[in-house]
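dumping the sequnces here before i forget
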Amino acid sequence: MTDHETHDYDVVVMGAGGSGLRAAIAAHEAGARTAIVTKSLLGKAHTVMAEGGIAASMGNVWPEDNWQVHFRDTMRGGKMLNNWRMAQLHAQEAPDRVWELEEWGALFDRTAEGKISQRDFGGHRYARLAHVGDRTGLEMIRTLQQRAVDLGIDVYMECTVTRLLKNGDAIAGTFGYWRETGSFIQLNAPAVIIATGGIGKSFKVTSNSWEYTGDGHALALTAGASLINMEFVQFHPTGMVWPLSVRGLLITESVRGEGGVLRNSEGKRFMFDYISDYFKAETADTEEEADRWYDDHINNRRPPELLPRDEVARAINSEIKAGRGSPHGGVFLDIATRRSAADIHKRLPSMYHQFKELADVDITTDPMEVAPTAHYVMGGVEVDPETQAATIPGLFAVGEASGGMHGSNRLGGNSLSDLLVFGKRAGEFAADYAAKLPARQVATAADVNDAIAEALKPFSTNGGENAYAVQAELQDVMFSLVGIIRNAGELTQALGEIEKFKARAAAVSVEGGRAYNPGWHVALDIHAMLTVSEACARAALERTESRGGHTREDYPATDPAWGKVNLIVTEKDGAITIEHKPLPQMPDELATLFEEGH
Amino acid sequence: MARDLHLRVWRGDASGGDFVDYTVAVEDGEVVLDALHRLQATQTGDLAIRWNCKAGKCGSCSAEINGKPRLMCMTRLSTFEPDETITVNPMRTFPVIRDLVTDVSFNFEKAREVPAFAPPSDNVGGKFRMSQVDVDRSQEFRKCIECFLCQNTCHVIRDHEENKPAFAGPRFFIRYAELDMHPLDTQDRKQMVQQEEGLGYCNITKCCTEVCPENIKITDNGIIPLKERVVDTKYDPILFLGSKIGMRKQTRTPVGPAAARAISPIKHPERTAGDESVTSVASVAADPGGDSVLRKAAIPAGATGAAAGVGFLAWLMRRRRTS
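..and the predicted 3d for all of it:
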């Protein structure tokens, strides 16, 4: 074994976004020696990109709101495939988690009474999203970052984990490298929390940054944990389409929450043509009713522009395919004719800035061009709903890296609240697990040496291609063959391509040295990207129905039989297998919430 | 429409480096970061760049472009002449790690010194009541994406390594202003920001405001009001007398810098004998606060570096004239 640096902790948190920071704070406050390991600098994680808000039924705008309504909205948004207990805990605990942020210095927008303001979002019955203009994620991550720094939690920045260390069946820590020097670092800990976010970087058009390579998903799977719901990928309805440079960049759902509407090239508000039977009873069927709803939620139904994201994304996709798209292959999102310029500046400042700076479009006078973009994976590490414990001892997962909470489709605003609610739970239970463990084991020297050899392999491979090329081709394949609309032929083809990419990824070469070498980083990340891509494609091939973020053109109907089943992905000796697992049974008192007919 | 772009990119590390010329194909609507990414993918795979969101929201990709401190992801190629060579070098105020990536841990250490927001003890669980008009001022400062371009530009520490220990910089002055203007905070950091964080070093040249990608009025809305508040409490004879004879009630508790712990929780790579990298670049050890002057000197102060500096000044003056 080389003489690399090692440190001992009780709990190691991988990732410094909302869920990782919240988990680390909780673990620290529970008395655990805690470390945060993050691929980027503190405060740069993908949470900063979250714009709209944090869903929590505080009832500040509509006193009629409560956790039961939020729970019902969440389950229906996920087409009932959610883990009911996670959805329940989430709805119950979200308000306290938001108020706690305020006690730590977050400054949310206010109502006239001085309470936290709440805004409308797709799939939410009442205005429920605590927000700060359209930069809520920044406010959240900065608040949590400042809290973590104030508590003195150890932070390993620009440090990438390449392997979960185990001893026997149980977790023993993490192994990885410092980006700055390329030197190795081993953190021994009996509890590791995966808070690494999603897998969006496997898709060509995505709102996600370079970090979203599915590291946590892949490391957990390889370590023997199972993944759940990996077929469900959320394509956010509104990504930028022009210029090409920013294709996929997110346009917040708040634009629609604030009154923005979608139109096709004929100027028609086409969403009225795409109201599915599932949401018919609660969706306005005339423009007049839809427009009245903004001021009166009680006597009017929600505009179809605020249907859940899967429904809106499919509708936009259909309009574009039918030839009614915008000049650059999207549809029009119009806020200019709906709100005053002053309102837009106040409520959507970063959208104004983004379009002005990057596309020369003034959204106070002109419509935006939008099309769906890969945004979020509902699937993730299978966890216990109360503790966030994965299926191997000592491993926990939280946020986008965990699965179950959002079922087949996540509602906007439910991500930030998910991070907070389950971040706190994961931190507390991981600390508790570590404290109660009778004896600790560290990884064997052989395993560590193996991890070192694996990380250094691209340097000793001569004459191979560079990893950027493999990455770019994988992104193409995933977006075009495992994208918003899928079929058996294309999924099978994608799996064939992924096998070829695996062979190529095993033989990539790296130029330069180990210090801050992005070429090397991509050469290592590509393996995780391939693993999660395969898990996603295999699960998508298995589920022969359409539901939420999984649409099969060869199986367009939603099948009640499939509504009782989660797909579980496991890996053994490099081979991925899929199992069917019955959904946990919802207790009667919750089930009655869905029978009230509203 | 594709065209060829000429780029000059600073390549090197703490031991030295220089500008390297490249030609790379670019498309309409692209930004500087796109051009560098293409360079990375097709010509020089190990080009070190720090970036995340590519949307101007995370503040990772700060650099100096033709001498101007900018975010690479928000600098459109169309703002340059088609045949113009675009020069990119790392932020000058921070030690170089490699190529365009600098060691910005100065900022994370200064962040540790900020005493956190302290709400009234009886005011929990959703009971906060604040008017929008009262939070507007602090919200402006919380737009900060921590790109540290203001820190990089500030002449108090740019080329003045010796001032760094005593000076928090514009990013943190607006953090102190934010807390001081928070309607519910119970602490008073005004003496501290003057005595410990070097607020007096700032002579309001507004360079920080000029480079802020979030258009935060750092000087006008943050630093100047903060200076006024410090002066009010420290030098106003009537207020001083009032506080001494108990006429003026202290509503906030004066505090000193946080982060009394000697060992920073912000970790850096350790040098260990057995961990030799496969090339000589392993000799770039992280040594925060060590030989950082030497490491910074690695950025060329010669023709190109100086030209970049002059370019920035000229740009600032142009901006002033037109605004």
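Confidence is low (pLDDT under 50) at residues 274-310 of chain B.
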